[in-house]
């Protein structure tokens, strides 16, 4: 029985993966055009600039920085992993919310795609795969800069890389689900405010213990906090079982997002 | 699936959007190798029918089988063997002409090598070789439509669905599209198309159904439909006076039938010249007289009392 | 009859009525969140070392006011202008009326300045609530914001009339607006920048705006003397306006 079912399941999974890869392949083809490159490359600079400005510039005004566990690190070393997490979030959200909404509503790309054997869930998966590839390139570059500035070691940077993929995966899945609820470009104003608030308050620039208790609860429920904690733990070499909790949270978020996105796209496009 | 079984079978097919019924129970059979048309004005339910056949819209009632499969359960497998040219071009504006085809081929699981090869053949087939490396954005409407048709052929489909293939194109571009579609027909490709142009239906369709208000009102080949629902010739009369109604009584019993349109009167007669002579005998002086053969437009007018293009 | 430039201004107001909710969020709430996150929570750590001589909150609040002016001016001068040529083609429709190119630029920039003024006023009130206004000169921060708004909006109008793809705006923000916001003295004094970066900060209109705003709200002297900063900003305004009018004309003649 098992021998009969498994190969068939595997073949089905492989076809699904291939079709998702074809969706991602479309973005690779588009990325080869010159204008797109500019946007892609420039996206890398933003987190680096933040690191230099806040991490080094403001960091110069803060002498040592004591972590909750008592160790003292430079402010830049404290902020850098948070910028890495935020960059993974911003990259994944940009690709999945704005770009996906544009493709769905304005370019009407998926109308053409769904006339082929490709199914909505596979479109969602393919877009997410692309977001992860693109995000990973940014993450590797940023980790390289962190190592170069002496903000983490090569070993910990390598350990942190898969975690950045998980963070991207979580926000990509969530972003896609959100994109299916967006009505017009104006709605992105709201998304941006929430995104920016997370960026500022998720223990990014200062530890959350300085917040009032109710603020802490809100922050600890939101996803970026978990991404920041996970990456900061890895980049500063502070391992603990708590990190697995952050990983579990992020993977759960990604899965829920993907399932919702696949379903909603079916509803929106198969009218 | 036996060879004689139709590629598409619909029985009492219904599509509802909330309270609105777009398709109100239609029966259709499309056989291998034929060019089948849905003719009707905007809002007749043609596009909804096409979307159901394209497996991107689930029927609200009745049965629909395509290539021997169920469109709801086997949608993906059916779509693998369809080529779809939607009413609104959904080309990828960020890609070049060739990339639009190669990227699309990948959605069907076609290997990169075969995709490139087929893209080049199709680009030549739709006469876009010189624009192959350009992005889609600056292409003319006719070029875009030809590219969309090429895209619909990239998987070597068993059935090609064309929703209003020449709507919005200028006459020259339309002829170019027709010529390409005619070539496909010659090759034995099964075509299913919707149109509200009677000349398009006459040129391309072996068999067609006339739709109005979500229902099929007539079915047959263009010739059969004209023979059955119209006369051989039609006389179009225009008068300089604004009120055409007064002429209706005066023209009575000339030809078989008379239709009053806002700007002209149509006299249906097997012998048009005889009818014109009869008009002259009654001392009526039309400002213009045109004798022509009956078309599907006349069939539609007779069946529904309305014109196709308004 | 009203001046054609006023009609252009009014046209913008009509569309603003439909989108003002989202814009309140992005042009008012975002800077306030920044003030809270940086000024209060990070500020706690800065103040312990006492390197600035003033509270960190007092230091960055005027900087954020000037950068808000830049932010609003930039976002209102990019996509909306581009859209006027490419999507809505509003400028093309205006071209068919007695409205002149200069009227289009003036009317639309006037609207951008209104948006800058509204955001700046809102932020000034928040600053007052947080007790960051320490001088009677503080109200002057409002006209300074307008000056920063014009000095940045005008050249960006020219840029938006020039570019052919909207992707270039991401580049503008990432290579000009964001670096200015981060390095032109908003969050830390430019003295700590390496020489080359400091020179770039001096070139940027934002730094001059930050200096003037900070001088106004703290009641201190600015780096180069107020009139030098004002003069520099006015130069950007004039050059930007001339360039914008020229670019608009070129684009509409195509």
TrEMBL record, chain A:
One of its GO terms (biological process) is response to antibiotic. GO terms for cellular component: ATP-binding cassette (ABC) transporter complex. The chain crosses the membrane at residues 36-61, 73-93, 140-159, 165-183, 190-214, 234-261. Residues 38-268 form the ABC transmembrane type-2 domain. GO terms for molecular function: ABC-type transporter activity. It comes from the Bacteria. Belongs to the ABC-2 integral membrane protein family. PANTHER family: NODULATION PROTEIN J. This is Transport permease protein. It comes from Planosporangium flavigriseum.
From TrEMBL, chain B:
It is a peripheral membrane protein. The lineage of its organism: Bacteria, Bacillati, Actinomycetota, Actinomycetes, Micromonosporales. GO terms for cellular component: plasma membrane. GO terms for molecular function: ATP binding; ATP hydrolysis activity; DNA binding. The keyword Repressor does not apply. GO terms for biological process: response to antibiotic. This is ABC transporter. Keywords: Antibiotic resistance, ATP-binding, Cell membrane, DNA-binding, Membrane, Nucleotide-binding, Translocase, Transport. Residues 220-304 form the Core-binding (CB) domain. Pfam families: ABC_tran (PF00005). It is found in: Cell membrane. Residues 8-238 form the ABC transporter domain. The keyword ATP-binding applies. PANTHER family: ABC TRANSPORTER ATP-BINDING PROTEIN (PTHR42711), ABC TRANSPORTER ATP-BINDING PROTEIN NATA (PTHR42711:SF5). Belongs to the ABC transporter superfamily.
TrEMBL record, chain C:
InterPro entries: ABC2_TM, ABC2_TM_bact-type, ABC_2_transport, Nod_factor_ABC_transporter. Keywords: Antibiotic resistance, Cell membrane, Membrane, Transmembrane, Transmembrane helix, Transport. Residues 22-251 form the ABC transmembrane type-2 domain. GO terms for molecular function: ABC-type transporter activity. It comes from the Bacteria. GO terms for cellular component: ATP-binding cassette (ABC) transporter complex. Its main location: membrane. GO terms for biological process: response to antibiotic. It holds the Pfam family ABC2_membrane. It is a multi-pass membrane protein. The keyword Disulfide bond does not apply. It is found in: Cell membrane; Membrane. The chain crosses the membrane at residues 24-46, 109-130, 136-159, 171-190, 224-244. The keyword Plastid does not apply. Belongs to the ABC-2 integral membrane protein family. This is Transport permease protein.
